Amino acid sequence: MESYMLSIKVDKISENRKEKKMRYLFALIVKFVMLTAILWIVLGIFYGINLGDIFTISILLSVVSFVGDVFLLPRIGNVLAVIGDFALSFLVIWGLGNSLFAFEIPVVTAAFISALFVGVGEIFYHRYMKNQVFAGLEKDFMQTHHMQTEYSEEFSPEDKK
Fold first, then answer.
1. Pairwise CA distance, residues 112 & 92, whole Å
2. Which residue in 45, 54, 116, 142 is deepest, having the highest Cβ count within 10 Å?
3. Considering Cα of 15, then 19, then 24, then 26, what sign does the dihedral take?
4. Distance from C-alpha of 27 to C-alpha of 155, rounded to nearest angstrom
5. How large is the C-alpha radius of gyration of the chain?
6. Where are the alpha helices (DSSP H) in 40-77?
7. Higher pLDDT, residue 9 or 148
8. What are phi and psi of 152, to 5 degrees?
């Protein structure tokens, strides 16, 4: 009977891990689709960048910013995470744009406009992450950690010597 109960517990833990992995994988796919759509609209339609370059930037930006969202978003909050995603998007698009795009394109302007739209998209994406992906985590994990120092005096004056 005990081995049967242990087997049920192991199966539930295994299902929870699988479910958690699927939530993270789906969140990564959502981020990739969002970034690809934004970059295709801004870079592809307005600046004429080919789809291969947009996919390259989207893949790199999705992976790097997703790792940041998973580890930093719960700790620093939505506002700082959006600012960080804006800066990261600008730097990645600008850096890769200098090597991938044609020289006639104003890369800094294209990167700035793309980063603005990515920042707006990240506001909604972070809400999704908080409500869907991080929903099972402890409440304390989603808040900033406040630490206190405990101190006291000695109980008797003789102990201070």
1. 11
2. 54
3. positive
4. 55
5. 23
6. 47, 51-76
7. 148
8. -155, 170
Rounded distance between C-alpha atoms, residue 115 and residue 79, angstroms: 15
Q: Is the pLDDT of residue 142 over 70?
A: no
Instruction: Report the alpha-carbon distance of residue 103 to residue 137 in Å, rounded.
Output: 47
Determine the Cα–Cα distance for residues 121 and 117; give it in Å rounded to an integer.
Answer: 6
Q: Where would I find the H helices in 40-148?
A: 47, 51-76, 78-100, 107-128
**pLDDT of 133 strictly over 60:** yes
All structural domains of the chain with their residue ranges: 21-136
- Classify the C-alpha dihedral 148-153-159-161 as positive or negative: positive
- Dihedral over alpha carbons 61, 32, 126, 114 (to 10 degrees): 60
3-state secondary structure (DSSP) of residue 135: coil
C-beta of residue 81 within 8 angstroms of C-beta of residue 90: no
Select from 25, 23, 133, 16 the least CA-distant residue to 73. Answer: 133
pLDDT tens per residue across span 95-129: 998 888 777 788 899 999 999 999 999 999 999 99
Tokens standing for residue 77:
């909050």
